[in-house]
TrEMBL record:
InterPro entries hit by this protein: ACCD_DCysDesulf, TrpB-like_PALP, TrpB-like_PALP_sf
Organism annotation: Sphingobacterium cellulitidis
Gene designation per UniProt: acdS
Name of the featured protein: 1-aminocyclopropane-1-carboxylate deaminase
Keywords: Pyridoxal phosphate
Native organism taxonomy: Bacteria, Pseudomonadati, Bacteroidota, Sphingobacteriia, Sphingobacteriales
Family label: Belongs to the ACC deaminase/D-cysteine desulfhydrase family.
Modified residues (N6-(pyridoxal phosphate)lysine): 15
Names of the cofactor(s): pyridoxal 5'-phosphate
Length: 269
Protein backbone atom coordinates (compact mmCIF):
# COMPACT_ATOMS: atom_id res chain seq x y z
CA UNK A 1 0.00 0.00 0.00
CA UNK A 2 1.21 3.47 -0.91
CA UNK A 3 0.25 5.56 2.12
CA UNK A 4 -0.61 8.90 0.55
CA UNK A 5 -2.92 9.47 3.51
CA UNK A 6 0.23 10.43 5.42
CA UNK A 7 0.95 13.48 3.23
CA UNK A 8 -1.06 15.82 5.49
CA UNK A 9 -3.92 15.43 7.99
CA UNK A 10 -6.38 17.31 5.76
CA UNK A 11 -4.58 18.06 2.45
CA UNK A 12 -3.96 14.35 2.07
CA UNK A 13 -3.56 11.84 -0.72
CA UNK A 14 -4.95 12.71 -4.10
CA UNK A 15 -6.52 15.86 -2.67
CA UNK A 16 -3.03 17.37 -2.39
CA UNK A 17 -1.84 15.92 -5.68
CA UNK A 18 -4.78 17.44 -7.58
CA UNK A 19 -4.41 20.83 -5.89
CA UNK A 20 -0.62 21.19 -5.95
CA UNK A 21 -0.04 22.45 -9.51
CA UNK A 22 -3.27 24.45 -9.53
CA UNK A 23 -2.09 26.37 -6.47
CA UNK A 24 1.32 26.92 -8.08
CA UNK A 25 -0.37 28.26 -11.22
CA UNK A 26 -2.63 30.58 -9.22
CA UNK A 27 0.42 31.93 -7.34
CA UNK A 28 2.30 32.49 -10.59
CA UNK A 29 -0.62 34.61 -11.86
CA UNK A 30 -0.85 36.57 -8.57
CA UNK A 31 -4.39 35.27 -8.05
CA UNK A 32 -5.53 35.47 -4.44
CA UNK A 33 -8.97 33.83 -4.40
CA UNK A 34 -9.73 30.13 -4.86
CA UNK A 35 -13.29 29.20 -5.86
CA UNK A 36 -14.31 25.56 -5.70
CA UNK A 37 -17.26 23.18 -5.41
CA UNK A 38 -18.34 20.13 -3.44
CA UNK A 39 -20.88 18.30 -1.35
CA UNK A 40 -21.51 18.79 2.35
CA UNK A 41 -19.01 16.09 3.41
CA UNK A 42 -16.41 16.84 0.73
CA UNK A 43 -12.81 15.98 1.53
CA UNK A 44 -11.85 18.22 -1.38
CA UNK A 45 -13.49 21.26 0.22
CA UNK A 46 -11.64 20.69 3.48
CA UNK A 47 -8.35 20.13 1.65
CA UNK A 48 -8.82 23.33 -0.33
CA UNK A 49 -9.70 25.29 2.80
CA UNK A 50 -6.60 24.00 4.60
CA UNK A 51 -4.35 24.64 1.59
CA UNK A 52 -5.73 28.17 1.14
CA UNK A 53 -4.96 29.00 4.76
CA UNK A 54 -1.49 27.49 4.58
CA UNK A 55 -0.44 29.08 1.30
CA UNK A 56 -2.02 32.52 1.63
CA UNK A 57 -5.20 32.34 -0.46
CA UNK A 58 -8.78 33.28 0.24
CA UNK A 59 -11.23 30.44 -0.41
CA UNK A 60 -14.88 30.33 -1.42
CA UNK A 61 -16.80 27.08 -1.84
CA UNK A 62 -20.17 26.46 -3.44
CA UNK A 63 -21.76 23.63 -1.49
CA UNK A 64 -24.37 21.43 -3.14
CA UNK A 65 -27.75 21.38 -1.38
CA UNK A 66 -29.48 23.05 1.53
CA UNK A 67 -27.51 24.89 4.23
CA UNK A 68 -26.40 22.56 7.01
CA UNK A 69 -23.76 22.24 9.71
CA UNK A 70 -21.45 19.26 10.07
CA UNK A 71 -17.87 18.66 11.32
CA UNK A 72 -16.28 18.87 7.85
CA UNK A 73 -17.94 22.17 6.97
CA UNK A 74 -17.18 23.52 10.45
CA UNK A 75 -13.49 22.76 9.88
CA UNK A 76 -13.68 24.49 6.48
CA UNK A 77 -15.01 27.57 8.28
CA UNK A 78 -12.23 27.37 10.87
CA UNK A 79 -9.71 27.58 8.01
CA UNK A 80 -11.49 30.73 6.82
CA UNK A 81 -13.36 29.32 3.84
CA UNK A 82 -16.57 31.12 2.86
CA UNK A 83 -19.37 28.62 2.18
CA UNK A 84 -22.16 29.41 -0.26
CA UNK A 85 -24.98 26.84 -0.40
CA UNK A 86 -26.73 26.44 -3.76
CA UNK A 87 -29.63 24.31 -4.93
CA UNK A 88 -28.74 21.14 -6.81
CA UNK A 89 -29.96 22.41 -10.18
CA UNK A 90 -27.82 25.56 -10.02
CA UNK A 91 -24.89 23.49 -8.80
CA UNK A 92 -24.85 21.51 -12.05
CA UNK A 93 -23.69 24.64 -13.91
CA UNK A 94 -20.45 25.27 -12.03
CA UNK A 95 -18.79 27.36 -14.72
CA UNK A 96 -21.89 29.56 -14.97
CA UNK A 97 -21.87 30.05 -11.19
CA UNK A 98 -18.24 31.07 -11.37
CA UNK A 99 -18.63 33.46 -14.31
CA UNK A 100 -21.71 35.14 -12.84
CA UNK A 101 -20.20 35.77 -9.42
CA UNK A 102 -16.45 36.17 -9.83
CA UNK A 103 -13.77 38.27 -11.46
CA UNK A 104 -11.76 35.77 -13.43
CA UNK A 105 -8.61 37.90 -13.17
CA UNK A 106 -8.41 37.49 -9.40
CA UNK A 107 -10.46 34.34 -8.85
CA UNK A 108 -9.21 30.86 -9.68
CA UNK A 109 -11.73 28.18 -10.67
CA UNK A 110 -11.06 24.75 -9.13
CA UNK A 111 -13.54 22.13 -10.28
CA UNK A 112 -15.29 19.67 -7.97
CA UNK A 113 -12.80 17.17 -6.59
CA UNK A 114 -9.88 19.14 -8.08
CA UNK A 115 -10.55 17.68 -11.53
CA UNK A 116 -8.26 19.32 -14.13
CA UNK A 117 -5.32 18.67 -16.42
CA UNK A 118 -3.02 20.12 -13.75
CA UNK A 119 -4.60 17.70 -11.28
CA UNK A 120 -3.89 14.91 -13.74
CA UNK A 121 -0.23 15.96 -13.80
CA UNK A 122 -0.03 15.92 -10.00
CA UNK A 123 -1.47 12.42 -9.82
CA UNK A 124 0.97 11.17 -12.49
CA UNK A 125 3.79 11.91 -10.04
CA UNK A 126 2.68 8.93 -7.95
CA UNK A 127 4.52 6.73 -10.46
CA UNK A 128 7.73 8.78 -10.13
CA UNK A 129 7.80 7.99 -6.40
CA UNK A 130 7.58 4.20 -6.74
CA UNK A 131 10.77 2.23 -6.11
CA UNK A 132 9.38 -0.97 -7.63
CA UNK A 133 7.40 -1.90 -10.72
CA UNK A 134 4.00 -3.51 -10.19
CA UNK A 135 1.76 -5.74 -12.26
CA UNK A 136 -1.36 -4.08 -10.88
CA UNK A 137 -2.11 -0.72 -9.25
CA UNK A 138 -5.50 -0.17 -7.58
CA UNK A 139 -7.12 3.15 -6.76
CA UNK A 140 -10.61 4.37 -5.85
CA UNK A 141 -12.23 6.70 -8.39
CA UNK A 142 -14.65 9.60 -8.16
CA UNK A 143 -13.93 12.03 -10.99
CA UNK A 144 -11.35 9.60 -12.39
CA UNK A 145 -8.53 12.15 -12.28
CA UNK A 146 -6.31 10.01 -10.06
CA UNK A 147 -6.52 6.81 -12.08
CA UNK A 148 -6.02 8.77 -15.31
CA UNK A 149 -2.99 10.49 -13.79
CA UNK A 150 -1.51 7.17 -12.70
CA UNK A 151 -2.01 5.82 -16.21
CA UNK A 152 -0.33 8.95 -17.62
CA UNK A 153 2.68 8.27 -15.40
CA UNK A 154 2.77 4.66 -16.56
CA UNK A 155 2.63 5.75 -20.21
CA UNK A 156 5.47 8.20 -19.68
CA UNK A 157 7.67 5.50 -18.15
CA UNK A 158 6.53 2.85 -20.66
CA UNK A 159 5.59 0.38 -17.91
CA UNK A 160 3.44 -2.71 -18.41
CA UNK A 161 1.35 -2.12 -15.28
CA UNK A 162 -2.44 -2.47 -15.41
CA UNK A 163 -4.34 0.25 -13.53
CA UNK A 164 -7.51 -0.83 -11.75
CA UNK A 165 -10.19 1.74 -10.96
CA UNK A 166 -12.78 1.10 -8.24
CA UNK A 167 -15.48 3.68 -9.04
CA UNK A 168 -17.45 4.78 -5.99
CA UNK A 169 -20.35 6.13 -8.06
CA UNK A 170 -23.02 4.05 -9.73
CA UNK A 171 -22.90 3.94 -13.53
CA UNK A 172 -19.28 5.07 -13.82
CA UNK A 173 -18.51 3.37 -17.13
CA UNK A 174 -18.49 6.88 -18.66
CA UNK A 175 -15.05 7.37 -17.07
CA UNK A 176 -13.38 5.73 -20.08
CA UNK A 177 -14.71 8.56 -22.26
CA UNK A 178 -13.25 11.08 -19.78
CA UNK A 179 -9.87 9.34 -20.02
CA UNK A 180 -9.99 9.44 -23.82
CA UNK A 181 -10.69 13.19 -23.73
CA UNK A 182 -7.43 13.55 -21.79
CA UNK A 183 -5.66 11.41 -24.43
CA UNK A 184 -5.08 8.67 -21.87
CA UNK A 185 -4.64 5.12 -23.19
CA UNK A 186 -7.66 3.27 -21.82
CA UNK A 187 -6.48 -0.17 -22.94
CA UNK A 188 -4.51 -0.64 -19.73
CA UNK A 189 -7.23 0.69 -17.38
CA UNK A 190 -9.64 -1.81 -15.89
CA UNK A 191 -12.89 -0.53 -14.35
CA UNK A 192 -14.46 -2.69 -11.64
CA UNK A 193 -18.06 -1.48 -11.56
CA UNK A 194 -19.54 -3.76 -8.89
CA UNK A 195 -18.21 -2.23 -5.67
CA UNK A 196 -20.07 1.09 -5.40
CA UNK A 197 -22.61 -0.32 -2.89
CA UNK A 198 -25.55 1.34 -4.72
CA UNK A 199 -23.91 4.75 -5.16
CA UNK A 200 -21.76 7.55 -3.83
CA UNK A 201 -21.38 7.50 -0.03
CA UNK A 202 -23.77 4.53 0.13
CA UNK A 203 -22.79 1.54 2.26
CA UNK A 204 -23.84 -2.01 3.03
CA UNK A 205 -23.54 -3.96 6.30
CA UNK A 206 -20.90 -6.13 4.61
CA UNK A 207 -18.79 -3.10 3.70
CA UNK A 208 -19.02 -1.63 7.20
CA UNK A 209 -18.09 -4.97 8.77
CA UNK A 210 -15.12 -5.33 6.41
CA UNK A 211 -13.84 -1.82 7.19
CA UNK A 212 -14.07 -2.38 10.91
CA UNK A 213 -12.20 -5.71 10.69
CA UNK A 214 -9.58 -4.22 8.35
CA UNK A 215 -8.84 -1.30 10.66
CA UNK A 216 -8.68 -3.53 13.74
CA UNK A 217 -6.34 -6.04 12.08
CA UNK A 218 -3.99 -3.63 10.26
CA UNK A 219 -4.06 -0.35 12.18
CA UNK A 220 -4.63 1.43 8.86
CA UNK A 221 -7.63 3.75 8.84
CA UNK A 222 -9.93 3.59 5.83
CA UNK A 223 -13.41 5.07 5.31
CA UNK A 224 -16.64 3.95 3.60
CA UNK A 225 -16.81 6.40 0.69
CA UNK A 226 -13.51 5.72 -1.10
CA UNK A 227 -10.75 3.66 0.52
CA UNK A 228 -13.13 1.22 2.21
CA UNK A 229 -14.70 0.26 -1.11
CA UNK A 230 -11.24 0.08 -2.65
CA UNK A 231 -9.89 -2.37 -0.09
CA UNK A 232 -13.12 -4.39 -0.08
CA UNK A 233 -12.75 -4.82 -3.86
CA UNK A 234 -9.10 -5.86 -3.65
CA UNK A 235 -9.80 -8.47 -0.97
CA UNK A 236 -12.81 -9.77 -2.90
CA UNK A 237 -10.75 -10.16 -6.07
CA UNK A 238 -8.02 -11.95 -4.11
CA UNK A 239 -10.57 -14.40 -2.75
CA UNK A 240 -11.83 -15.02 -6.28
CA UNK A 241 -8.27 -15.81 -7.55
CA UNK A 242 -8.47 -12.89 -9.97
CA UNK A 243 -4.69 -12.48 -10.07
CA UNK A 244 -1.98 -14.73 -11.44
CA UNK A 245 0.32 -16.26 -8.78
CA UNK A 246 3.17 -14.02 -7.63
CA UNK A 247 1.54 -10.87 -9.02
CA UNK A 248 2.89 -7.63 -7.60
CA UNK A 249 -0.04 -5.49 -6.47
CA UNK A 250 -0.01 -1.91 -5.18
CA UNK A 251 -3.01 -0.20 -3.57
CA UNK A 252 -2.92 3.61 -3.40
CA UNK A 253 -4.42 5.01 -0.18
CA UNK A 254 -5.79 8.36 -1.29
CA UNK A 255 -6.54 9.75 2.18
CA UNK A 256 -9.74 11.66 2.81
CA UNK A 257 -10.26 10.06 6.20
CA UNK A 258 -12.61 12.77 7.42
CA UNK A 259 -15.16 10.92 5.30
CA UNK A 260 -15.53 8.66 8.33
CA UNK A 261 -17.26 11.42 10.27
CA UNK A 262 -20.52 11.03 8.41
CA UNK A 263 -20.62 7.25 8.95
CA UNK A 264 -19.46 6.68 12.52
CA UNK A 265 -22.94 5.78 13.73
CA UNK A 266 -22.86 2.69 11.49
CA UNK A 267 -19.95 1.05 13.31
CA UNK A 268 -20.17 -1.11 16.41
CA UNK A 269 -18.15 0.76 19.02
Amino acid sequence: MKRDDKIHPFISGNKWRKLKHQLEHAKSQNITNLVTFGGAWSNHLLATAAAAAQFGFNAIAYVRGEEIRNPVLDMCRLYGMELRFVDRESYKNKHDLFLLNHNSENDYFIDEGGKSELGLLGCSEIIDELKNEYDHIFVASGTGTTVAGIQLGIQQKKLKTTVHSIPVLKGADHLLDEFSNWEIDTQKIKLHLDYHCSGYAKTTPELISFIQQFIESTGIMIEPTYTGKLMYAVFDLLEKDYFKPNSKILVVHTGGLTGLLGHLDKFNR
